[in-house]
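Try this one yourself first.
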């Protein structure tokens, strides 16, 4: 059973063996109460209560603990702190993708239970080049059938996160400049997929999609990991999607014009931006210059060093190990 927030999502996206159900429907409440196992990547709503015998696996939605969260996010409202404490108390297991993530779970998530250090199941196919190639082909066919636009074209995925107050950065990207720069550096024909964070989906007014035939809003596409799989280049700012995308070894660039104010006025970081393997730029012009001078060999070396330093657990077999844990609890 897969819980969804509304029927706006394409129900034919799910395979036959997955039954989607609306979260606040009577059937959804029934499934919550009667399920043997819960798997969640965020916090449970405050009214949710776990029955005796139910198991709860927390996979969390961010990895490598970049932005300060939970107890370390001093701006967290009291209701969110209360919700986090209760959720962690219910959890039977946390899934971690790195040593630094495990450390933050125990220091900041009000959690002292077991952690399965195996990588994230959602990243399994990003690690395996064979699985990734098959998935990219399937997703490309899906987009071609739906939009008829990406056949033979490369994809730049732009996926910014949100700021304090659920706002988007005021510094607007120049997508036409980006397209020209990416074509000049890597060749081929390119299109841009815009993926806004769920908290800021309604603020994407800085681009008129009807006037830009090479820019497509995929903010409501149901699976961010599939967008990472199909993308050839990622541009983000402070989103942990950079660490997932890095597993593909494809180029990732950070576009963060507000880096000074974000670092001081927003959440702050566990990992300093200067330690990241992804080059950071503060303007459209800087980003284009960085793309033009991009050194693939240096980038690959920086990626490997980063994942080793912070203890990546990603091996591509996390899904199997989670299933093994579930089966061990059911016997």
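Now uncover the answer:
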């Amino acid at each position: 059973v897969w819980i969804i927030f509304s029927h706006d999502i394409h129900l034919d996206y799910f395979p036959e063996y997955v039954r989607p159900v609306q979260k606040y429907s009577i059937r959804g409440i029934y499934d919550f109460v009667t399920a043997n196992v819960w798997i969640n990547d965020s916090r449970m709503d405050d009214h949710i209560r776990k029955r005796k015998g139910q198991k709860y696996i927390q996979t969390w939605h961010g990895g490598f603990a970049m932005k300060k969260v939970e107890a370390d996010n001093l701006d967290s409202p009291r209701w969110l702190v209360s919700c986090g404490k209760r959720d962690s108390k219910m959890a039977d297991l946390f899934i971690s993708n790195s040593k630094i993530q495990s450390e933050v779970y125990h220091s900041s998530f009000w959690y002292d239970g077991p952690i399965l250090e195996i990588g994230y199941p959602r990243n399994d196919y990003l690690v395996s080049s064979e699985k990734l190639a098959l998935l990219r082909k399937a997703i490309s066919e899906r987009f071609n059938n739906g939009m008829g636009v990406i056949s033979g074209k490369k994809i730049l995925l732009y996926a910014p996160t949100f700021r304090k107050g659920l706002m988007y950065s005021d510094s607007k990207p120049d997508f036409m400049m980006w397209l020209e720069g990416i074509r000049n550096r890597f060749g081929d024909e390119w299109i841009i997929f815009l993926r806004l964070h769920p908290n800021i989906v309604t603020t994407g007014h800085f681009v008129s999609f009807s006037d830009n035939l090479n820019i497509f809003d995929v903010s409501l596409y149901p699976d961010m990991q599939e967008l990472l799989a199909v993308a050839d280049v990622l541009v983000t700012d402070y989103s942990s999607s950079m660490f997932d995308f890095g597993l593909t070894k494809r180029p990732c660039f950070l576009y963060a014009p507000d880096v000074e104010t974000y670092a001081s006025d927003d959440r702050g970081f566990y990992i300093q931006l200067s330690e990241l393997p992804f080059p950071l730029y503060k303007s459209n012009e800087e980003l284009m210059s960085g793309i033009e001078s991009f050194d693939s060999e240096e980038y690959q070396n920086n990626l490997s060093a980063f994942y080793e330093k912070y203890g990546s657990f990603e091996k591509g077999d996390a899904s199997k190990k989670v299933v093994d844990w579930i089966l061990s609890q059911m016997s």
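Discussion: The mean pLDDT is 88. The chain has two domains: 36-119+315-330, 125-309.
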